[in-house]
Each structure stands twice: as structure tokens, then as C-alpha cells.
Amino acid sequence: MDITSQELTIRRLVENWAVWRDAGDWERFRSVWHNDGMMMATWFQGPFEEFIRVTIEGWERGVSILHFLGGSSIDVNGPRAIAQTKMTISQRGPVHDVLCDVVCTGRFYDFFEQREGRWGLVHRQPIYEKDRIDPVDPAATLRLDAQRLATLPEGYRHLAYIQTGIGYKVKMDMPQLRGAEVQQLYARGQAWLQGQPLQR
After folding, report:
1. For residue 106, what are the β-bridge partners?
2. Which member of 9, 25, 64, 140 has the greatest number of CB atoms within 10 A?
């Protein structure tokens, strides 16, 4: 398989992740991952099977989180690859009794590996670049707690605001557009492409 074919295969896996996760097609969603795959998110960090379980639990409580994808940049080196894909995360829920949509723009930074002829996802780390919050009813009045908002990471502060408000514990040092965390992620990606063990 040439590089272009491998890139297309990886891109399709990225797209399948978003479609199957948001549709709750869990059997096919599992096929995107290798068995040791790990998922990182603001509200969850752990094995993908656990991610499935807690996502289903959230759905049963009315949590609504959806994904939309943009372009990809994929670097392949032998049996390993790093894929960066522009994305938005959209979450709908109540904020101070006002139904709101939060949209966070960023990138999925994915560690892929080809094992026994099959490409699969080993580790997904989103990069959170910027976000916003809007009432679903444009006539509604929303007043955020400015002090609380200011304590949250700039790249995903509105996402963190709604998630902490409904009871999730949010990881506060996720990679953003700039900063030490994203530079460390890029370094991990380069090491992965060079055949080094993945630093979780």
C-alpha cells in the first residue's frame, strides 16, 4: 500500500470515528481502535471501551455531544502515523437554567499504527483552540459567572463551564493552540513516528 492509500485509509478511520460515535454504532466504532486504544477528552481520559461505557451513561442522562470534521494533515512513517484533523465539538445543555449550545473548535491529534496489516487508533488527544456559548433561544438572557469562567482554560473554557456545571470533572491541562502542553504533544508525535514507545 503506497503512502496516499495509507493516508486515505487513516482519514476514513477518522471520519468513521465521528460518524459511528455520534450515531452510537458501537460495534463498528470499536473497529476503529486497536485493543489498547486510549481516548483523551476534557471530561474523560482512559481506555476506549470505558469511553463507550461512560458515553452511553451520559446519553441516558440526556448529555448531547456531537462532532464535525474538517481537513486532515497525515504524516506516515512505516507502520506509524500521526493524523491532525480540524474539528468542532458541539455540546447542548442547560447553563443556569438556559438551554445553550457550546461549540469548541480544535484538532484531533491521533496516534495510528498498522498492526498485522490493519491500521487502528492507538491514542486520541484533542487540541482545544477556541470556543463559544450561545443560548438556543436567541431571546434568552444568559449570565455567566465571570470569576468562575476566568479560572478555566482559555481554549475550552465555555466547554468546561457547561461540563463542570452538569457534574463532570474536567482536566485542566489539555493542549490548546499555544503553550507547553501542545508543544509536548507535538514532541510525543514526532517520537512516535520515529518508532519510540508512546508516552501516555
Report:
1. 87, 128
2. 9
Query: What is the Cα–Cα distance from 137 to 100, expressed in whole angstroms?
Result: 8
What is the C-alpha to C-alpha distance for residues 138 and 93, in angstroms, rounded to an integer? 15
Residue with cell 498492526: 115
pTM of the model: 0.95
Set of cell numbers at residue 84: 491532525
Q: Are 52 and 79 in contact (CB under 8 A)?
A: no
Residues in the chain: 200
How many Å is the Cα radius of gyration of the chain?
17
pLDDT per residue as tens digits for the range 7-23? 999 999 999 999 999 99
Q: How far apart, in whole angstroms, are the C-alpha atoms of residue 96 and residue 46?
A: 30
DSSP code, position 176: B
What CATH topology corresponds to 3-187?
Answer: Nuclear Transport Factor 2; Chain: A, (3.10.450)
